[in-house]
Design brief:
14 strands; 12 helices; Aspartate Aminotransferase, domain 1; alpha/beta; 16% strand; 2 domains; 7-stranded mixed sheet; 3-stranded antiparallel sheet
Length: 357
Amino acid sequence: MTRSRAPYMEWAKHRPKPRIDLAGSNLLACSLDDLPGARDAVDLAGESPNGFPPLVAAIGSRYGVQTDNVATAVGCSGANFLALAAFVDAGDEVVVEAPGYDPLVAAAEMLGARVVRFERRFEDGWRLDPARIDRAVTPKTRAVVFSSPHNPSGAVAGVEELREIGRRAERAGWIGIADEVYLDLVGDAHPPAATLSPALVSTNSLTKAYGLASLRCGWALGSPDAVERIRRARDVVDVWSPIPSDRLSVLAFRDLDRLAARARRIVDANSRLVRAFLERRPELECLPPAATIAFPRFVDGRDSAPFAERLLRDHGVAVVPGAFFDLPAHFRIAFGGATAALEEGLRAIEKSLGAEG
């Protein structure tokens, strides 16, 4: 039997289809009608030697950087893999946050790197602590990988923490890779990490914050040297993205303010429901949810897996068991979908919790 390199992703793809999905963390998907002009815009022709030029320009304009600070990729996961491939060789060390999104670990392992973990703790508010990173780094470290907002907790790294990580990276000679796929949901007060230090790379996509997962539009921001290395890594992976997808992504960027407002309406309404639910449940403790994910845990430390299985079996509602993040007492709730479905899903969770008594 083939060993899965990313058990969470294997589970996410092959689990029974739920009636209400509070496990997948994408924003409610857009339709073609959400992209005015989309039906007339698709053209198969075009070239993308270093990224489709109109798309690279649109990404740079959105984040206030130059085009030589932008590399495109297939989704944020693709950008993460290319960033690692640009800097990591077999036998190197890669330091990755724990708990964390398991494809980040799997990507480093596929490149032949030895993975070392540093801890982010519930008791510290899931803080991204530069000192903890420092203790995990060795002379063989080539990259440190983390997420902000943190997956699975949603905690957002502070600007000063990111600057300090960048300073330490510059001194020691490793690259920091920040998976920021949820960042656009938390506002302009949190700039991309790559804009704070030349030793930091930011990865992102149109997936989680805009409901455009099917376009597979991802990117990395970084120094011109880092971006050039990422572009050359792409030469041996998939060369460039499908031109029709890139053209539709350009349309999305032209209308991104409206799509962001749509996302904000969904997230604001849904986060209020999740906060109210958590306040009613004394058997759970959770830091305030952010982005579109919350990561509560059972106060008594019980394993959440039996609860998640019963919730799916009895109510058709899916959440992510914490074991996929090496914290079995937790479970992850995603709340970027339709508000009515979330309300029904939360009621089912409460019924299931009540049945546990």
